[in-house]
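Below is one protein, fold included:
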Amino acid sequence: MEIRFFIKEKGQESGPYNLSELGQLKLKKNSLVRPEGNEEWKKAKFYSELDHLTNKTLGSAGTFILVVILIFVSYYVYRQLYPPKAESMAIAKENSTVGNYDEDIDYSEEDEFTAPEIEYNVTKHQKKLFREMFKDCNKPKRVLVKACNYSNETVRNFAAKVAGNSPGNFNISQVCDLFDYCYSNWKYVNDPRTTEYVSKASETIRNELNGDCDDFAVLMCSSILAVGGEARVNYAWGSEGGHAFTEVNLGKESEEFLASYIGNRYSTINIGSTDIYAKRDKEGNIWLNLDWWAENPGGEYFDYKVGYTFYILQKFCENIDASTAESTNHK
């Protein structure tokens, strides 16, 4: 015999109804019901016979939580795909010895060479909606984007002062000037033992160029960006541990011309030949190594197997392809 149920709504009892009739009444899981012949009223959700009839709603609280989650996810995805422009963080001018950016470096020998202007297009990267949300490199990317505050007054003044030794549009000589100054004045200092501390570029300038490898990479990247170039930061790991280094986009400039300029500029210092180390991306751009371990622009790469590459302008990160760990060596 088919079971039938009575319903109580607003104190009024009706029924009995069979299952087909209850379905037409749009029974809810919290509706009070009792089987025919039973005087005890219970919520419909406690009867397995009514599971397929009850409207499974989240309720006001559940709906609110779901809406909040959807708003948060939508906002996160939007910020990943369309990040805000970097904000300028104006810092009051301070009386500091850091202002003498051009001391200790002799640029007189450079007059013999013509520094090629760097013509490049800012690289573009396809951002896939959900893939961007779950990348392992997202957290360090946010730290580096914040640290590379290239539009900050202190960073811009520092980079412009040094690059001004080779005036004109963005050129390879400015890249070398910036590297030489940072390299020759750098003092290596460890992070706190239990913390991976990444100093902002402006902070490193104010502390007179003290820090570790990621601080040097941030300063070099920010300085390049501050004078109109494009640079990227790499986090890499190999048999000797982890390391950070910067590369600068030289566009599609002739490899031989760049090798000749760098070789001539540094032949009396530490290269002794026209070998340079760089990589060419899928768009044909040359990325020159600016690692402080290399001692000069285009020096030999840190030996790595895995890592991440961070594009600061685009707020984009990706895995380093292990196959690109081999440098492009021009002789």
Q: What stands out?
A: Residues 89-329 form one domain. The two ends are 94 Å apart (CA to CA).
